[in-house]
Design goal:
A hairpin with a 5-residue loop joins β1 and β2. The chain contains twelve helices and four strands; from the N terminus they run ββαααβααααβααααα. It folds into two domains: 150 residues, no CATH class; 63 residues. The two termini are 33 Å apart. Helix content is 58%, strand content 8%. The chain has 248 residues and is mostly helical.
Length: 248
């Protein structure tokens, strides 16, 4: 059956006060892109440091220069992400470029302690053999795409700004069709969201989502899309009959 959670990555979080907030969590692919950008930035910095210390080695001595370079590499590896993520923006330069930030699961800004825990456990996420297999498996297995460091620190990576999506033409209005069976509140909401967001998806994506609810619509493909749209139209008419009468 179609559910609202399958339509996008907008996740609901209920706080202790009973207030519900919504976070648009980021998937692993975009985070890999951010990591690649940060890796390139760190590479440029370390290359510049190596050149500078190579020249300084003539005056300081090769051992001192090598020690300083080792220290710089250590600081870049462990403190580069921690300092940036614990800052006001909550993101490394790579995450900022792709529009991501790290927050607590409650949506609050990251603390220094959480950033420390999150980044110290990166070596576990990087296993086996620095392939980040453990981290990827954890991301794919958790609802909010959290790697092991995120789970331990109570953090999540979200979109800082909502992605701009192209708007495509939605299917034309059709006659309302009553629901053949009773639906739960979440299933009804998902049905209405399907109709409201159909204009954001390609034809293939509409049909892919509609096929998940073929048991309800009794059809698949384009026919399934039309059937679900008609049912959603009926639900909205039933919910707001006065608005429908005024339009007529």
């Amino acid at each position: 059956m179609l559910t609202a959670a399958k339509l996008d990555t907008l996740q609901a979080v209920e706080l202790a006060e009973g207030v519900e907030i919504r976070l648009r969590v980021a998937g692993p692919m975009l985070r890999i892109g951010a990591y690649a950008i940060d890796l390139a930035i760190r590479g440029v910095v370390m290359t510049a440091a190596s050149i500078g210390l190579a020249w300084s080695g003539m005056a300081l001595g090769n051992r001192v220069a090598f020690g300083m370079l080792t220290l710089a590499g250590f600081l870049m590896e462990w403190f580069y992400p921690m300092v940036f993520e614990a800052g006001r923006r909550g993101a490394t330069p790579g995450k900022r470029i792709v529009g991501l930030r790290v927050v607590q699961v409650t949506g609050s800004p990251l603390t220094l302690g959480q950033s420390l825990v999150r980044n110290l456990l990166r070596w576990v996420d990087g296993m086996p053999l620095f392939t980040y297999g453990f981290g990827m498996a954890s991301c794919l297995a958790t609802k909010r795409f959290q790697r092991l460091g995120d789970l331990a620190a109570g953090t999540v990576v979200i979109y800082e700004r909502a992605p701009v999506l192209p708007r495509l033409a939605a299917p034309p209005p059709i006659a309302a069709v009553p629901l053949p069976v009773g639906l739960t509140a979440d299933e009804t909401r998902a049905l209405v969201l399907f109709r409201e967001r159909a204009g954001l998806w390609s034809v293939g994506r509409r049909e892919e989502i509609a096929n998940q609810a073929s048991a309800l619509s009794g059809a698949s493909g384009a026919a399934g899309v039309s059937r679900l749209m008609a049912m959603a139209h009926w639900v909205q008419e039933k919910k707001h009959p006065a608005d429908h009468d005024r339009k007529n």
